[in-house]
Each structure stands twice: as structure tokens, then as C-alpha cells.
């Protein structure tokens, strides 16, 4: 994940509500997607100009969903905020892409910010994008850092006239958007789980310094992942407790199910963190055991050669009067004795299961 510390310095000394984009430029030009719908009709308009929204007359019996891909043009975000009466503080939070997941209730709308996460297997990192959602009386505004396929299936479901999204209010569409983000977490955790299994196999079969580095990198990403997901539970709970009337009672049951999913995601993250911590201990134990095996073999070899070296040292002292030096069978006798001693020691070590 990217570091925002240097980017936050842009806002130093600025008054509250100052609109400055904090984050990366993810798209060349922002794209607006306007969806007007009810039970009978569905109209989709795509443009890079906010005039497409200003020129439309919104019918009271139709619901509106405006999605913005790309946040670096602050003028566009400011114009949308004025058009729908969004407070500058909220617009400032939308442009500051370092927000933690949260839900804030205002007089006429609810502001929700949540993070979508993607696992880059080749780089062994987790990338994060901020998604902001504003739920009004008859409209939804959603803001993404870049264009993704995250809401593609929701748009496909909206094309069916008999679909539940077309029949229900914008609060149900808000639930659907958040549910799509949470479902994406399962895909992320599945990819991370496969990587953890691969590291476990590598750790048991042939651990290396690269294995340790991969474990450390993944453990660091899990810490950042936990920080992004831990507030998710309270974010959804705040939607359940909202008393503004924008969340209908019929949507509460879906939010409860979404709350359960958020708990499952958080528990899975905690499980993976514990597994990675255990893998670090396993790596150290494996390396220590391998070192012990090497040292055991070297110690046995050295122990066998100690008496052999002692015997060779005795007959290498070059004294003139040593009886065995003049003996015809002295050399083969000494060699046989040394070999026999080595065999006896090997048998003893094996019997003691030291070998």
C-alpha cells in the first residue's frame, strides 16, 4: 500500500473544507456515470462533463445514481457537492483518500466511506482504493479513485426490470454497493490464503532467506489490511442504527447479513495474521533444526577422528626405540585397529540414535 504521509503535508495550514486532492491520479480524465431508474425505466448516461447532470430534470418518481471515477479534478467534485447540497467538510473527506471506513449522518444525507482492496500476487502487496458513498432522499453519489469492474454486476442486475434493485429505494442500492465491496474482500482473502499455503509448503520442504522475506512482507500487508478492515464492522453497524429515515426498515435485514459478513472477514484476517506469526516461529525452528543436523554430523565425524588422530600422533613422534616401528605387520595392524575403532564408535552412536 502507498504511503500518504508526504501527501498530507499539502493540507498543512489550510482551513477546514479546503478541497485538495490527497492521493494518486488514477485516471487521465474523470468519468461520470448517471443512472436514472425506477421499476419501469432505466436510463444510463456517461460523460466527462458535469453539464450532463445540470441539464437533466430529475423526476420525483425516479431514483438517481451518479458514479464518479477519478478524484483529481476538485472542481468537478465541488460542483457536484453544490448541486446536491453536500457540506464542504464531506467533500474534503472524499478528496482525502486516506480516510478510514466510517459512517456519518447529516440532516439530508448519509456519508459512507469504505476501502476496496486488491491483492497483487507478483508484488506480494495489497493495494487499496477509497470509495465514498452519499445516500440522499432519492439519490446516491459514489466516488472511486479509478475505474473498476467492482459495480459491473450491479449495473447488470439493474438492467432487469424485475430485479429487486429497480423496485426498492436508493437505500437498497447503497446496501448493494457496500455488499459488492465486502464480497470482493472474500476474493482478496482467498488469494492471500493460497499464498500462505504456498509459503507453508515452501517453509516445510525447502526454506530459504527469500521465504522469510516473503513472510515478513505478507505479515506487514496483513497489518495494513487489518487497519483498513477493522472499522468496517462499526461502519455497517452505524448504518443499522441510523435514525434519519433514509434507511428503510425493509433494508435492515440485509444490513444485518452484511454485518455478519464483515465479522467473518475480520476474523479471517486475524486468523491469517496468527498463521503468519506462527510461520515465522516455524521458519526459525526449521533453520535451527537444519543447523543442529549439520552440527551433529560434523560432531560425529570429529569425534570419530579424535582417537584416530591420537593413534596417528603417537606413531608420528619419530622416537628411535618404538617396538612397532620395526615390526613387519605394524602398519596394517595399526590401520585395522583404527578402522575397527571407527566402526565400533559408529555402531555405538547408531545404537544411541545419535546418528
From TrEMBL:
Regarding the membrane, this protein is recorded as: Multi-pass membrane protein
Instruction: Give GO terms: molecular function aspect only.
Output: cobalt ion binding; cobalt ion transmembrane transporter activity; magnesium ion binding; magnesium ion transmembrane transporter activity
List locations, semicolon-separated.
Cell membrane; Membrane
Asked whether the keyword Transit peptide is assigned, the reply is no
Q: Which Gene3D superfamilies match?
A: CorA soluble domain-like, Magnesium transport protein CorA, transmembrane region
Q: Which domain of life is it from?
A: Archaea
Which UniProt key words apply to this protein? Cell membrane, Ion transport, Magnesium, Membrane, Transmembrane, Transmembrane helix, Transport
Q: Name one GO cellular component term.
A: plasma membrane
Q: Which family is this protein grouped under? A: Belongs to the CorA metal ion transporter (MIT) (TC 1.A.35) family.
Q: Which InterPro entries match?
A: CorA_cytoplasmic_dom (IPR045861), CorA_TM1_TM2 (IPR045863), Mg/Co-transport_prot_CorA (IPR004488), MgTranspt_CorA/ZnTranspt_ZntB (IPR002523)
**What species is given as this protein's source?**
Methanohalophilus mahii (strain ATCC 35705 / DSM 5219 / SLP)
Function of this protein?
Mediates influx of magnesium ions.
Write down what this protein is called: Magnesium transport protein CorA
